[in-house]
Amino acid sequence: MLPIASPSLLTTLLILLISLGATRVLGQRLTRWAIPALVVELAIGFALGNVVLPFKAIQPLSGITELGVLTLFFQVGLEVRSDLVSSRARTIIRLVALSFLTPLLAYWPLVNWFAMTPATTLLCLACLSATGTGVTLRLLAQRQALRTPSGRLLVGVSVLDDLPAITLLALAVAAGGRAISSNTLGPTGLGFGLLFALLSYALVRWWVRRCGQRPSGPLAILLLLIGPAWVGEISGLTALLGALWGGVLLGRLSPPEDALNRVLVVLSEVFLPLYFISVGMRVSASSLVDSRAWALALVLLVAALLSKLACGLGVSAKDKRDGVDRWLVVFGLIPRGLPGLVFATTALGAGLISQPQFSALVVMVTVTTVLGLLLLEQRLVQLEKGRGRATDSIS
Q: ∠ CA 187-342-260 to the nearest 5 degrees?
């Protein structure tokens, strides 16, 4: 069956909605085997793009599908608080530093073995530094392990861990130059973005001191989401960093409330799965038979696993005495999950990477996500059996 060449808008929407429903049904069935929903979304998107509907058919809708990703990083910004690392601050900082610094060791092999440009190499390092702790925390919550010492430590790491990776992504886009995008302001963009960040933060502080009424309606939330994201895009710092900054601003204005959460849940539950279906549609079957793509995927996978295994060094003996399990933390950091795919797709749209490089990054993200969750599930089972034997010996 060949992809539909020129589908109408209603045909495209109907196919996407049917695909979204299929991901919901299959995702619920496969969660019992610790397979995350995004893997199902990628697989359905891959089949959709190569058999039924070409990706170019939904390109006019790409801005709408990206709304779910912007919402995701907006929520990350909401969680950035001054007290975030108050519990086990030193351990969290060590883990974040190791998670960010160890992937940088892959810079030389990527440049010399694959003849990558600095911008492309920085993008790959951003994907290696990212951590999809969202899927990890979801599994811990399902196994009622989120409030354990290891779970609480991963919660602290989850927000801060992606901030250096987002910075690497912004540097990669900036290093790519003006040629990669016609929507940026060029060399003056960085200064404009930084000036906007300073002025907006000062305005928020003034608003908090002088005004009692704080924005909480859907329109205000969307303006704080899309406005900074637009500034991030035109300044060359990426819309993701702008959306994250919008979340920081709203967090300063008002703590998250039920009304805010309802708006964000609708945006993320509907548009985020559509985004990852579109990511799968971008992966062409021809690129997966390219030996260069698989060679790069293998190198990236090895670097991804080794860099997170090194994070085990950040768990001290004191942490272990307090109940933190080193392997549970390491396995929880292995999945690249949502951020890794978002970074790769952003880079492909900006012209930083080729189709084979994009396919290699998607393979790395998918394998690390599935492998990390399977290892995490197995470790949780081992710990539960160990506690059961300890209880039996005491009784």
A: 100
Per-residue confidence in pLDDT tens, the chain, 395 aa: 455 656 677 777 787 788 878 877 776 676 666 566 777 888 888 888 888 777 777 766 766 777 777 877 787 677 665 555 556 778 888 898 998 899 999 999 999 999 898 889 998 998 898 887 667 766 776 677 777 888 878 877 876 777 788 788 878 877 765 444 445 555 566 677 788 888 888 888 888 777 756 666 777 778 888 888 888 877 766 677 788 788 888 877 766 566 667 777 777 777 778 877 888 888 888 877 788 889 999 999 999 999 999 998 998 888 888 888 999 999 989 988 777 888 888 788 778 888 889 999 989 988 998 888 889 888 888 888 876 665 656 55
| pTM (2 d.p.) | 0.73
The SS3 call for residue 284 is coil
Residues in the chain, total: 395
Q: Which domains does the chain have, with CATH numbers?
A: 9-394 (1.20.1530.20)
Give CA–CA dist 98/329, Å, rounded. Answer: 13
